[in-house]
Write a structure and sequence with these properties.
alpha/beta; Arginase, Chain A; 8 strands; 42% helix; hydrolase
């Protein structure tokens, strides 16, 4: 059975006019239930993770200041969120959702998190809507528990996974692959193990050609025993914060290729949703829902 992390705190409200579309975290599960892609028992409710898991990635000093709401106004401007207890709780619970999803992916081949993909969070700082790096923490969790040795992070959000690159920059046991917009945020990029920077307006055909020629070779070279997939839908032409030119169908075919590849090679995969900032919320929900529809089609 497909298992999906969801907690009501995911939809924590932000001040009116804030550009981050928090409503998608409420609407996406409702859509999946309404159309019959999922049932109530597909969803599980994460809680607070053991802080030790977080501290394998994030520094003690940063995590303590975050939990004590002691980040400076400058740091919070960089994060993009107004600091609050609910927000810090939310970020920790998202991390637990991804950790728990890893165990379920080992059992079922795949598991998802309605939220997550917080790849801009560095080991010692927050950035761009990301306070804690959920997939980085979960990768360290798997290795600590000896559930995986070699891990591949496939980051197909339109923005480079700069925080993830920084966290694993000296660690050969976690391979970071980021395929993103060249002319997009972050403008000062970190160095992933493999970065593919795409030109503005890159469309479906070129995008899929590059991905299909890269991912199988990468898996063959690295031989991971677990894959994290960050399936951001901000590659869409309609996205306000992206600069690529992909269609909803192209985004769906991207997901189909990644999930089918993981399935065929029998490599467990955990999926976190990442970004999506199209003006029309229906476009965001449809693109994200496709990832879940494909997971059901391919795996179950």
């Amino acid at each position: 059975m497909l298992k999906i992390a969801f907690h009501p705190i995911y939809k924590h409200p932000l001040p009116e006019g804030h550009r981050f579309p928090m409503e998608k975290y409420e609407l996406l599960p409702r859509q999946l239930l309404y159309e019959g892609t999922c049932k109530d028992d597909n969803f599980f409710k994460p809680e607070f993770p053991d802080p030790e898991h977080i501290l394998r990635v994030h520094t003690q000093e940063y995590f303590n200041r975050l939990r004590n709401l002691e980040l400076s106004s400058k740091e919070m401007r960089k994060a993009g969120f107004p600091l609050s207890r609910e927000l810090v709780d939310r970020e920790q619970i998202i991390v637990d959702g991804t950790i728990q999803a890893c165990g379920l992916a080992l059992e079922n081949g795949i598991a998802m998190n309605i939220a997550g993909g917080t790849h801009h969070a560095y080991s010692n700082s927050a950035e761009a809507f990301c306070l804690l790096n959920d997939q980085a923490v979960a990768a360290r969790y798997l290795q600590h528990k000896k559930l995986a040795k070699k891990i591949l992070i496939v980051d197909l959000d339109v923005h480079q996974g700069n925080g993830t690159a920084e966290i694993f920059q000296k660690d050969a046991s976690v391979f970071t692959f980021s395929m993103h917009g060249k002319g997009n945020y972050p403008f000062k990029k970190e160095i992933s193990d493999l970065d593919i920077a795409l030109a503005n307006k890159t469309q479906d055909e070129e995008y899929l050609k590059i991905l299909k020629s890269t991912l199988p070779k990468l898996i063959d070279q690295q031989k991971p025993d677990f894959i994290f997939y960050l399936s951001g839908v901000d590659i869409l032409e309609s996205d306000k914060l992206g600069k690529l030119g992909c269609t909803t169908n192209g985004c769906k075919e991207r997901d189909r290729f990644v999930l089918q590849t993981c399935h065929d090679l029998q490599i467990p995969v955990q999926c976190s949703m990442g970004g999506g900032y199209s003006e029309d919320i229906k476009v965001i929900i449809e693109a994200h829902a496709n990832t879940y529809r494909l997971a059901q089609e391919i795996y179950f």
